[in-house]
Each structure stands twice: as C-alpha cells, then as structure tokens.
Amino acid sequence: MKRIFFLSLLLLSITGVYAQSSAEYIKNGNAKLDEGEPLAAAVEFEKAIEGDARSHEAYYGLGVAMAAINNYESALKSLNKAIEINSNYADAFLQRGLVCQSMSKTDDAIADYDRAIGINPNFEEAYLWRGMAKEGKGDVQGALSDYSKVMEMVPGSPTPYIYSGKLKLSQGKPEEALADFDAAIKADPSSADAYCARGTFWNMQNDYQRAFTDLLKAIEIEPNLPDPYWELASVKTSLRMFDSAIEDYSKLISMEPLNPKGLISRGLAKAMKGDMEGALHDYDRVMVLYPNNGEVYFHRSKLKSYQQDFKGAIEDINESIRLMPENWEMYVDRAGYKFSLGDYSGARQDYSTIIKVFADNPDLYMSRAGISVSIGQYAEAMPDFNKAVSLSPNSPQYIFQRGRARAEMKDYKGAISDFDKAISLAPQIPYAYTDRGIAKCLSGNKSGGCDDIRKAMELGDPQAAEANAKYCK
Length: 473
Known about the structure:
Blueprint: H1 2-34, H2 38-51, H3 56-68, H4 72-85, H5 90-102, H6 106-119, H7 124-137, H8 140-153, H9 159-170, H10 174-187, H11 192-204, H12 208-221, H13 226-238, H14 242-255, H15 260-273, H16 276-289, H17 294-306, H18 310-323, H19 329-340, H20 344-357, H21 362-374, H22 378-391, H23 396-408, H24 412-425, H25 430-442, H26 446-459, H27 464-471
C-alpha cells in the first residue's frame, strides 16, 4: 500500500514538473516573439508541446512563429491543433484568419474572423482585419461597416480612420477620405501613420505644400518610419527636386536594404534628372540582387528607349513580360519599340494581344489603326477606326482621324461626313475645317471648301494658309 502511494506521489510530481516547464517554455517563446526571433520562439513552443501535448497556447504560439517566417502550411497545422484543443480560442481563429489571408484564401479568412467575433464580440482587431479582407473582395460597404465598428469600440485609435479614408479615396470620394484622415489625426495627434496618410492624400491632389507639411510632421514623430520618406521622395520627384529625392531614396535604401523598390525608385529619379549612367547602375544592382524582379527590367527598358536603344529595350521588356505577363502596359511599350525599329507587324501583334484582353478599349484600336496609317495601309486601318468610333461615338478625335484616312483613300464623301460630325462635336477644332475644306475642294466643291479653309485660318490653324494658297487662288 505504501509503495502504491509513493508511486502516485511520484507521478503527480513528474506531471507538475512538466506542466511547469511547459508554461515556462511558452513564456520564453512569447518573449522571443516580442524580440523578433520567431525561429528561436518556435524551438521554445515545441519544447512546451513535448511537455504538454494538450497545450493550446503552445500550438498557438508555434503557429504564430511559423507565420512570422512565412511557413503558412506549418502555421495552419499548429493553429488547427490549437483550435481542436480549445474551440473557443478567439485569438487562434484570428491568427488562422491572418494566415489564410496571407495565402489569398479570403473567404476562409473571413469565416475565421467571424468565428473570432462570435466568441468575443468586442474583439476590435478581428473587426479591423475582417474589414481589410472584405475590402480585398470588393465588399466596400462591408469593409466600411467593420471599420466604423472599430471606430466606435476604440475611439482613440487612428487606424480604422486611416483604412476607411484610403478606401473612400479609392472609391473617388476625396472629401470623405480627407474627413477620415483629419479624424485619425484628431484621435491621435502623435500618430505618424495618420499624418503620412493625409500627406499621401495631399500628394495625390497635387497639393504639394500641404503634403510636405504632413509628411515632415510624420518624420518628426517617427524618424525611422519608412513610409513618409517614400511619399516625400515622390513629392520631391513631382516637383523635379531630384537631388533631394535621391537623398531620401538613399536613406530608404539604408533603412530597408532588402527592398528593391528603393534602388528602382532612386534609379528612376536619376533617369529623370538625366543621370542615365547612375540610373543604369541602380537598376543593374537590383538585377544582381533580385534577378526575377520584372519591374526593374521594365524600367531599364524605358531607359534604353530614351537612349534610342530600342533593340536593348525590347530585350529587357521581353524579360519583364516573362516575369510579369499580366502587366499589359508593357505590351504597349514594346509595340512602340518595335514600331521605332520598323517592325510594324510585330507592333500590330502586340496591340492585338492586348485587345484580346481589353476588347472595349477604343484607344487600343486607334493605336493599331495608327500603325497601319503610318505605313500607308489605310484600308487595313479602317476596321480599327470603325471599332473605336463604335465604342466611343462622341469622340471628335476618333471621328476626325477616320475622316483623314478616308480622305487619303479618296473617299471624300465619307471623309466630309466624318469631318461634319467631328465639327458638330467640337466646333472650335481649326484643323477639322482645314481638312474638310480640302476634301470639299478635291470633290469639286471649291466654294464650300475655301469657306472652310478661311474659317480654319480665323481659328488659327497654321496649315490653313498653305491650303488656302494651294486650293483657293
């Protein structure tokens, strides 16, 4: 009987030691997370699990650590276990939602935020993240509703106002956005993020003086926060203060040495300043560090095009398209480079590729038509002109350009009809009168044609005097 009692005490003692050790490891793991050492934290949480395989806190901590190093599959596995052990663990649902959101599983993320809020209706962080997830799905009203809920729950927090303002700005509501940014600053006048958000707003409105004021205030509050420097450098670039912008980008490169955006942006500022060699040096550095960065090839292609190196520009943009095939702007640029080299068929093919995706964009048809016109293939251009006009029937420029092509084909009746329509839409376009006057003269209506040419001279078309001398004397 004594022996059984002794063994029971020993087992209780061992269990107590493991439980105590598990709690200690969890404490150590959380400390490592706070210190920014997720790998070391993971080791502590794994030791905690060895001591207590039913510790939901240990699995939760391990999930957080795995998420911090972007090992999302392992993070999900650990968080699933934490939830399995404790199905009322709101923090675990929130964290799993964050992991799902990072993996672009937005619906799963929202479901987890819903569960977290269901467990803890006052969980403001879950409302905030759910709002961001809804915003990502295009549910604008749902996102704004969640941001408003956080505003009610934490009136002194600038964060929901900032997110709400940015969303409203993206929806074309600048006045409402500004009101939110002002409210963010009022909620916390010491928030660098709030001043940065409003400074960014002013920059987008081209109010550079106010942008300067807010961004400098953000830097004064938090000198090591990168975002205000990014925006301030953008303002300076817009104002052509290239040297100062380059200094800001250099500071950002020192703050975030692994962020290729700094070198790319500094290279762009150098290029705008005219320092092509300096720009190429920055772009080349990015390519060495990040050979799969498609953006830098895109920018270097532009730089080469400025230097008339269209062959080199095409080589770079081909690589950029390989890395970022859905950046359709690059196909437009490549078409321009091919055109400059006389590869008209290749230029047209690039526009055809984009048109398959953006079939309702009239500018693309006009550009493809322009290639045909430039090499005298007016008949080939006509279907594109017709399509552009059908998509935008009240564009005087589209109709006028089609009229010119018709005139080149000696279809003076069709040309005059187009010029009539263009003039009715924009009566003050002088060159439309010149071209209509010439078409009338060539079709036998010299009186009417010369009246148009004289009207063009009154409106200030410099080509009208030459037409007058040729057709009206």
